[in-house]
Every structure is written in structure tokens, then in C-alpha cells.
Specification:
Blueprint (H helix, E strand, L loop, with lengths): L17 E2 L10 E3 L9 E5 L1 H7 L13 H4 L12 E3 L2 E4 L2 E5 L5 E9 L2 E8 L14 E2 H16 L6 E13 L3 E11 L5 H10 L3 H15 L9 H23 L1 E2 L21 E2 L23 H16 L6 H8 L2 H16 L9 H15 L3 H8 L11 H4 L5 H17 L4 H9 L9 H11 L5 H10 L30
Helix pairs in contact: 3-15, 3-16, 4-5, 4-7, 6-7, 6-8, 6-9, 10-13, 15-16
Bound molecules: adenosine-5'-triphosphate and magnesium ion.
Function: Nucleotidyltransferase involved in the post-translational modification of proteins. It can catalyze the addition of adenosine monophosphate (AMP) or uridine monophosphate (UMP) to a protein, resulting in modifications known as AMPylation and UMPylation.
Cofactor: Mg(2+); Mn(2+)
Enzyme class: transferase
Amino acid sequence: MSALPLPPVLSEAPPLRFADTFHALGDRFHTALPAQGVPDPHWVVTSDACAADLGLPPDWTQREEWHALQVFSGNAVWPGMRTLAGVYSGHQFGVWAGQLGDGRALLLGEVDSPTGPLEIQLKGSGLTPYSRMGDGRAVLRSSIREFLCSEAMHALGVPTTRALCVTGSPLPVRRETIETAAVCTRVSPSFIRFGHFEHFTHTAQDPDALRTLADHVIDRFEPQCRSAAQPYVALLETVARKTGELMAHWQSIGFCHGVMNTDNMSILGLTIDYGPFGFLDGFDPGHICNHSDHQGRYAYARQPNAAFWNLHALAQGLMPLIDEDDDALDALEAFKPAFANTMQSRMRAKLGLRTAQDSDPALIDSLLKLMAAERTDFTIAFRRLSRFQTADGADNAPVRDLFVDREAFDAWAAQYRTRLAAENSIDAERALAMDRTNPKFILRNHLAQEAIHKAEQGDFSETARLLKVLQRPFDEQPEHAADADFPPDWAQHIEVSCSS
Ligand SMILES: Nc1ncnc2c1ncn2[C@@H]1O[C@H](COP(=O)(O)OP(=O)(O)OP(=O)(O)O)[C@@H](O)[C@H]1O
Ligand SMILES: [Mg+2]
């Protein structure tokens, strides 16, 4: 890496209060260095919602004296920002990969925001000591995908890292073809991953640093663990529970992550690293969204198992802090009820059921089996089910006609009708409730692809439009009905490039 001029520290900055807790852990955890930045940056897209959560005023991009465009391209910093790249390790596709780290991400700083502590991180801002064979860059295509999906998932109520903005640059970046560079600014209470803990146990073999890191996570994010008999066991149990809940969120909206390596698993149970992700179109439990996942390790239906496997890797990483293997194993068990209970309650909500009955799992299962047999569109089917009418002889054609085997659907619908009657369900009330849980709009690959196609020609209007639609995924938005329609035939053939 050649020596780079330090980016200027700007004299004027928005009134953000920067904290220093991760930086203060010391240089066993990170390398302080500036971003490489990009030439001639331009705005691609910004999220007003994320900016507001961070405490930025609404005109944050227009205040010329703040030079926000330069800051979020890695070309300047605001006072109080301390840029650094963190070190972590991890298991990739079940195999120990050794040291990894922020190879193209850079922490700008931690903000004490109105919504709590939030870190700001650039992705694609150039080489770091952890770049290995990579170029430290991200391309426009992958940055738009990460940006849109982060904000879409947040609006869907799924725990996730957020995205503040994407900036673009004419800087060429070599992938399968020559593309252009972009920087995606992400926002999260923390970007600490399972792999951070694995790093200090298996790579650095530094139990003191491991304890410091665990204490940092407990003190800043999970203080209730401190009063437990064994705080580190309590931390593991908390992560297991949150990860179980996260998996239920993913499964219930048909989200496939694609790269569930332990370096992409958040210690706070957030969705992190939007790469070759995809939402289910037709319901296929075996769907693999990552074309380099040849074994289907991270296929849709396997995601909860993959998460549980990853939690075992985390437990191994925490073992130097835990006396008994059995305590760690017991803590991991928290994953199972967290996943099962959240899944059951989310699926009941998707069917508009207010109460719980023993027969519900079978009712849910038989619908999913029917959908799997016909590859019924996951999102459209549940959204249309919101309009299900219980009256005898009611015409439920919008949902019924999604199934070729109408008789099979009718048989299921008869059970559903009986179940709804058992809790005196009222059609109109149920429809309203179901519309708040079954999204109309998700980021289908072809929608992202259209936005990217225009953006690559310098037109960012489709990216901005799509962001606005996805920020209200449960609203009807009839003017954007086409975005909720079946994917066109050509969309089945989109290959999402894994080189991001
Ligand atoms: N273009 C690149 N240059 C340098 N390092 C890279 C590049 N792409 C990936 N890496 C590094 O390879 C490892 C695994 O990559 P992975 O695709 O999971 O992460 P990522 O998408 O770069 O980042 P994140 O997990 O922060 O979203 C990480 O250490 C990552 O920093
Ligand atoms: Mg990653």
C-alpha cells in the first residue's frame, strides 16, 4: 500500500456527538488508517430516514460547508471521526478461513445519536491491512443492492444494519467486466461479528483481548448480562436468542442471505452484508440465491440450521471465557425456542390468527406444502390471502387462482375458514392486520436490476423511486402496483454476480 495524503479534517460539521468506545479498545482490535477515497464523487442515493435516525438535519447534503459528499466518499472527515479498519476471522462455508477483517470497510466513527449509539462505516473506501487479494473497492451495482435492501429490511421490521447513502465515482473497478466504484455508507449500533470472537481465540490466541471485546459488547449493548451469574454465558444465550428471532424474520418474509459465514453474522442479531441475497419469488424451500454456493449450504430452508452451526462456532470462540462446555451448550439451546416461537407467531400473524391453537402448525405447514408444490409466489400469495373472505360461497379468486390445483386450495381454505370461525375473525379487521405483516413490496432482483441499469447510465431516479416504495412495504401504493406484480419471465434468469 503506498502512503496516501491524509484526508482533510473539515472545520464545519453537523452537530453529531462522536463517541470513542470501539477505537478506545486499542490496536489489537483494529488499525487506524484513512480511507483511500474516490475521485470526482457524486451522489447516487441518500436515505432521509437513516439520516434522521443518526441525528443529521434534513438539509445535511445541501450544507456546502459540511462537504458531506466528500466525507461519504472517503475524501474528508468531520472533526471527531477516527477512521479505522477492524480485524476479525471466520468460518466460510463451514471451513475455517483464518484472518479476514475489514478489507474494504472503514469505520468513520461512533455517534451518540437520538436513537442510541450508532457507528458509521464506509464500504468500498479502499485498501486496508485486511484487504488480502482484494482491491478494497465496491462497485455501483453491489452498493445499490446493499443500500436498497438495508433500508427495505428496516422498513419490513427486520433487525438490520442501515444504509445512509451511496456515492459513485468514475474510478474503474475490475470485476467480471470493468465497472465503476461506489461507496456505501452503513449505519449500525455495532459491526462486530461472530468472527471477531473467533479471531481472538483461534487466530490471535489472546484471551485477554477476547475478554475485553466481550466486556465491550456487554457494557455497551447487553448490560443485563452483567448481573447474570456467568455474564459470558448470558451473552452467548442472548446472541443465540436474537439470532433465532432473526432467522424467523428472514424465513417469514422469504429472505435468503446467501453468505451466512461467521464473519457475516452480527453479534447483535442484525442482518449484515447484503451480497448475493435474494427474496423468494415462487416458494421453493431449496432456493439457493448465491450461485457460488454449490452445495446449497445456505439455501432458504437451511438458513436456521446454518445460523445454529454458526452459533456453535461463536461458542467455540467464547470458550476461553466459559468454564463448562455444558453451560455453553445450554446457552445455545436458547436459539431453538426463540426461532420456533417467533416463527409460529409470525406465521400466525401472516394468516391473520389472533390466538394460538395446537392445530396451527399443521394448518401453516399444509399451506406451505401446497405453495412449494406449485411454486406459488410467496409474497403475492400471503398478500392476497389478506383479502380472504369467510362467507360461504365467497369468491376468493384472487388467491385461489394462484393455484393450478384449485381443489387442493379449496380443501385447505375449508380448514382455514373453520379455524377463523373458531376465533370469530372479522374479515375487514383481519385484512387490515394482515396487511401490516404481509408486505406488498419487497426488493425483487429484477427491480434492483432495473434501478442499477439506469444508475449505470447516470440516471439515479429509479433508485430513489424504489427506495421510497420500499420504505412503505405494507402500504397499498396503487401507483406502484407494477413493483408488486409477478416478476417478468426474463427475471427468472437474472444471475446476481457474486463479485461485489
Ligand atoms: N474487494 C475487496 N477488497 C478487499 N477485501 C475484500 C473485498 N471483497 C471482500 N473482501 C473481504 O473478504 C472477506 C469476506 O468478504 P465478504 O464478501 O463476506 O464481505 P464484504 O461484502 O466485503 O463486507 P461486509 O461483510 O463488511 O459487508 C472480508 O474480510 C472482506 O472485507
Ligand atoms: Mg462480509
